[in-house]
Amino acid sequence: MNAAAISVRNLVKRFPLSRGLTQIARRPFTPRLATALDGLDLEVGYGEIFGLLGPNGAGKTTLLKILCTLVLPTGGIATVTGHNVVQAPGSVRQATGYCLDTERSFYYRLTGRQNLAFFAALNNLESKQAGERIAELTEMLGLSSAVDRRFATYSKGMQQKLGLVRALMTDPGVLLLDEPTKSLDPAAAAEFRRFLRNTLVDRFNKTILLVTHSLEDASECCDRIALMNQGRISLRGTWAEVRGAIRNGGGSSEHAGHL
């Protein structure tokens, strides 16, 4: 088995920026580029919850999208369970489940069950198997009483839970979660963190890469965390190590204001 569930080496991602007619006329073959990831290095071990913190625009969500093959990197190497995201995207998709922007990624007129059945079919799950997984996972996450209601009636917290159910449908070994507790009240967020730790990691040995702005997620849930800024990682370690380094002057003033 590979030493790391997720391995990223010198990862770069640049996006073209829109240009006005004057800029295009002056330099028609020189596009303006924005750098989202700037030589990023990262390793996440099997059975680990690794948290990514940082300001908006730091590149955290871009990294998740590359790891689940939604976006191609500009340069560098990224692997999930040993599979290269560019050379073996099918194998990477089989190994990963992702929960990104749940509010805009479900069909509002369909029920929770119909949404899940649709995405299960996209992942080549047979209808019987899909039905069993939907029943098992919605019960596990406390959604069984709402699964036949239209998605439009779901609260933000229920939408987040349905997104996690979808991520778990194919029983992947690696989960990529983008701010899964952002719409939950404190009690529900604490319950969600316990579910990640006690059920998904300790019981089912999942590996989780968790993007969050929540200090509670970082301190109570994650084995290690990294602070990202401008497409790079500035600090990494356990919560205590990173917080101690910032307090001792080892981090940026922006990070110090949040920890």
Structure description:
The protein is 36% helix and 24% strand. The protein is an alpha/beta fold. The protein has a domain of 173 residues: Rossmann fold. Helix 4 crosses helix 5.
Task: Using brief descriptors, characterize the structure shown.
alpha/beta, six-stranded mixed beta sheet, four-stranded antiparallel beta sheet, 10 helices, 24% strand
Task: Please give a quick description of this structure.
The protein is of the alpha/beta class.
Sequence-ordered SSE layout with sheet pairings:
Blueprint: E1 6-16, H1 21-26, E2 33-44, E3 49-53, H2 60-67, E4 75-80, E5 83-84, H3 89-95, E6 96-99, H4 112-122, H5 127-140, H6 156-168, E7 174-178, H7 186-201, E8 207-211, H8 215-220, E9 224-229, E10 232-237, H9 239-247, H10 253-256
Parallel strand pairs: 3-8, 3-9, 6-7, 7-8
Antiparallel strand pairs: 1-2, 1-4, 4-5, 9-10
**Largest sheet: number of strands, sense, barrel closure:** 6 strands, mixed
Write the CATH fold name of the domain at 6-22 and 33-103 and 172-256.
Answer: Rossmann fold
Elements, N to C (H/E): EHEEHEEHEHHHEHEHEEHH
For CATH, the homologous superfamily of the domain at 6-22 and 33-103 and 172-256 is named as P-loop containing nucleotide triphosphate hydrolases
DSSP summary: helix tally? 10
Tell me, briefly, the overall form. Answer: globular
End-to-end separation in angstroms reads 36 Å
**What's the level 1 CATH class of the domain at 6-22 and 33-103 and 172-256?**
Alpha Beta
Proportion of residues in helical segments: 25-40%
Number of strands: 10
